């Protein structure tokens, strides 16, 4: 069961503010409001905290208190509440079972049909001025391209597209196909972007890790690949999204899961 606060204005879609404490909710609220204004969406506070009923009324936004686990809450967000984006606190120092622990965060949103933004708990300001993402030799990153276009159109973000300097002809050819797809979408929407190769390095490395370490962006967009695509060597290392979260410092990361039924925003 859930308890909800009557919404002050009608909205078709919403941004979810996910928090398990009053402190976390108050800290995330200004960031959610900024995105709410840019995207013209409402805000709903979600919590699965056992004592959520005792503090949600102190947060100035509609709320839902769910008596269950976060994975179930995430599953319900787009279907029952028309949520298209979730904001989640991320703290590498949090206890293992805390919702803000990077490993637990990714577990909770593993089946998410909406984009989710991991915001480092040390962040004191929030900006979408400079947004970065990567393209590589693998499948077309339609999900990332879609959200990059949202950031450019609604938040007026400067879009930086990075890629590894592939020398393998097959890799390079597939990268070029993905670049052409990106250009087709952005040119059709009259959106400017900057395409740049990363400094030389292993063409077999994960480009997101290298791009994030490069710095220079306020928000990074990353695709969470289907776990079935991981091979034996991948299984020996933490997955790239987890490594990204552990090394993000103060940079929020917008994750989109690799799936065909991703919920999108109404323009």
Describe this structure in words.
The structure is a single chain. The protein is an alpha/beta fold and 267 residues long. Helices cover 35% and strands 22% of the residues. The protein has nine helices and eleven strands. The chain has an eleven-stranded mixed β-sheet, sandwiched between helices. Strand 8, helix 6 and strand 9 form a beta-alpha-beta unit. The longest helix has 20 residues. It is globular and about 60 Å long. The N terminus is likely disordered.
Any low-confidence stretches, pLDDT <50, length ≥5? 1-9
Helix content: 25-40%
Q: What is the average per-residue confidence, as pLDDT, rounded to a whole number?
A: 90
**SSE string, helices as H and strands as E:** EEHEHEHEHEEHEHEHEHHE
- With strands numbered from the N-terminus, the spatial order across the biggest sheet is 1-4-3-2-5-6-11-10-7-8-9
Count the DSSP helices: 9
N- and C-termini, Cα separation: 31 Å
């Amino acid at each position: 069961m859930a308890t909800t606060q009557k919404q002050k204005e009608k909205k078709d879609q919403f941004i979810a503010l996910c928090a398990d404490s009053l402190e976390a909710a108050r800290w995330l609220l200004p960031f959610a409001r900024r995105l709410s204004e840019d995207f013209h969406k409402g805000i709903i506070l979600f919590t699965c905290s056992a004592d959520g009923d005792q503090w949600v009324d102190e947060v100035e936004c509609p709320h839902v208190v769910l008596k269950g686990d976060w994975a179930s809450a995430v599953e319900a967000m787009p279907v029952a509440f028309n949520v298209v984006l979730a904001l989640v606190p991320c703290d590498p120092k949090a206890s293992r079972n805390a919702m803000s622990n990077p490993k637990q965060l990714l577990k909770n949103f593993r089946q998410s049909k909406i984009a989710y933004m991991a915001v480092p708990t040390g962040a004191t300001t929030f900006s979408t001025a400079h947004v970065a993402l990567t393209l590589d030799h693998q499948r077309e990153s339609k999900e990332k391209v879609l959200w990059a276009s949202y950031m450019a159109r609604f938040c007026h973000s400067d879009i930086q597209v990075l890629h590894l300097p592939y020398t393998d002809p097959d890799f390079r050819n597939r990268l070029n196909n993905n670049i052409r797809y990106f250009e087709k979408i952005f040119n059709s929407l009259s959106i400017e972007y900057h395409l740049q190769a990363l400094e030389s390095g292993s063409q077999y490395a994960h480009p997101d890790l290298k791009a994030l370490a490069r710095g220079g962006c306020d928000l990074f967009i990353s695709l969470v690949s289907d776990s079935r695509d991981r091979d034996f060597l991948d299984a020996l290392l933490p997955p790239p999204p987890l490594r990204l979260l552990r090394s993000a410092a103060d940079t929020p990361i917008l994750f989109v899961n690799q799936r065909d039924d991703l919920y999108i925003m109404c323009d």
